[in-house]
Amino acid sequence: MSQDVVSWSSNLEAYCWSLVYVLSTILFFGIFWRITGSFFLSKLGLLREAKELELPPTYHEGPPFIGNLIAFAKGPLNVVQRGYRCCGDIFTFKVLHKNITFLIGPKAHEIFFQGTDEELDQNEVYAFSVPIFGKGVVYDAPLDKRLQQLRIMSAALRPARMYSYVDQMVYEAVLFFRKWGEQGEVDILESLSDLIILTASRCLMGREVREQLFEKVSKLYHDLDQGMQPISVFAPYLPIAAHRKRDKAREEMVQLFRTVIQNRRRRGVKEDDMLQIFMDASYRDGSRPSEYEVAGLLIALLFAGQHTSSITGSWTGMLLLRNKDVFERVKKEQETVMEEYGDELHYEALNKMNLLHLCVKETLRMYPPLILLMRKVLKPKVYKQYVIPENDIVMVSPAVSGRLDTVFKNPDVWDPDRFGPERAEDKKAPFSFIAFGGGRHGCMGEQFAYLQIKTIWTVLIRSFDLEPVGDLSQPDYNAMVVGPRPPCLLKYRKKKDSFLDRVALFA
Ligand code: HEM
Ligand SMILES: *[C@@H]1O[C@H](CO)[C@@H](O)[C@H](O)[C@H]1NC(C)=O
């Protein structure tokens, strides 16, 4: 009997211990699994099934099938804004047979900007650029080659290069504004387009083009530019007059650069411009970009920088002239910078102009020239409980995201101080300010663009008394690169002791 009690009680003890052992093992592995399991699962791609993902909500307007197309053609931004209000920060919008998924706001932007090239592809959505940049150049090159071409372009735009570009910008701006004379009225968008193609031709295409071939190149550029019609996005090779002119202009452009390149090589001269960098660049296998490719890269940079910069430069001035308080502070800032540097206008002096910088940035928040950025989904992407399937087009909208009141306080008010160190409204979450895109394909020309626009307004403010004419223009959302609807007039009167008359220029 006592024997039984002993064995029973020792059995109980053993039983308890094994229970404790089993439970703690379960607990331990449970915690371990909680910490590491989702990591392994997601690595194995199993989490998708585990979480039961669904397609993003769809947003539709108007009559079936064509409703969305009509709405989108009428006003793309309004549709996207309504979609966001209705469905939240991710929704799919069907246009004909295409499924377009919008990602709105900093959190959703991460999916777009952190995607790799293998997941989110640019080539197909930017295919309309191929007849302009050329076959085998950038968006027509296989990924590996495209990345090498982008690397070559970024070498031409790296910070150390900016010193000499700024000198060339100042030189062109001073010569250009001297032609304005004592007083008058100008369309600032027209003026800045003319000026920026001059700077571009000097910094990008070099001395030969700027000094001997400028008339010819600007005509060719004009034909290339006119070859980019809204219809060209859908049918880049449609046999229309604009496309024929475009193709002819491209051929002539290549021929022209071939001659310039061969001349430089023959004479053994090296110039301080982007053309030289492209000529001297090499791919990983040691081969040089062909003359055809060099011309293509130059055209690509010209297109990336021309309208974007002239438009942003124009908006910045138009807004500045209509915001007297900020304008006065910008003039003060000029005086402060001049106390240190006098009339010397170079890279360092421009970098001291913080307020002017914020004015450009705030302008880009409200009026980004590129209103929609897109990629094609090659591998499904997961956001929240949604999966964006392969073959969808994903889009983000700098124009819509710049006006989110969850990110920017009073988003419809132009207020450069929101980006100042105290408020830094864009620093609370990454990818809040996306006028220059972001991530691996963010704009390479950002610094160049700021320097150019700051140079232009510095020369103008130091040289003229300026006044706005009429109301602020509205953006023209029908254009490929969205700018102010003309006219964009301002009045100027040369100052008594104008910067234009004070400075001496050395070419
Ligand atoms: C205010 C002026 C400008 C704005 C608003 C702007 C905006 C942008 C945006 C939004 C992108 C990203 C496109 C995408 O993700 O699909 C981009 C890319 C790019 N930009 Fe700019 N840009 C400006 C000026 C310039 C200038 C002046 C240059 C060159 C001189 C330039 C060269 C480029 C290049 C090469 C890329 C492609 C980068 C890549 O794909 O890796 N941009 N730009
Ligand atoms: C668009 O999405 C629907 C599901 O909502 C799908 O049936 C269709 O195949 C998709 N179209 C394309 C072109 O991917």
UniProtKB/TrEMBL annotation:
Keyword list (alphabetical) reads:
Heme, Iron, Membrane, Metal-binding, Monooxygenase, Oxidoreductase, Transmembrane, Transmembrane helix
What's a single GO MF annotation on this record? monooxygenase activity
Residue positions annotated to bind heme are: C443
Looking up Pfam families in the UniProt record yields: p450 (PF00067)
**Ranges annotated as spanning the membrane:** 20-41
InterPro entries, per this entry?
CYP450_sterol_14alpha_dmase (IPR050529), Cyt_P450 (IPR001128), Cyt_P450_CS (IPR017972), Cyt_P450_E_grp-IV (IPR002403), Cyt_P450_sf (IPR036396)
Q: Which domain of life is it from?
A: Eukaryota
**Which cofactors is this protein said to need?**
heme
Can you tell me which family this protein belongs to? Belongs to the cytochrome P450 family.
Task: Tell me the PANTHER family matching this sequence.
Answer: 24-HYDROXYCHOLESTEROL 7-ALPHA-HYDROXYLASE, CYTOCHROME P450 FAMILY 7
Q: Please give the name of this protein.
A: Uncharacterized protein
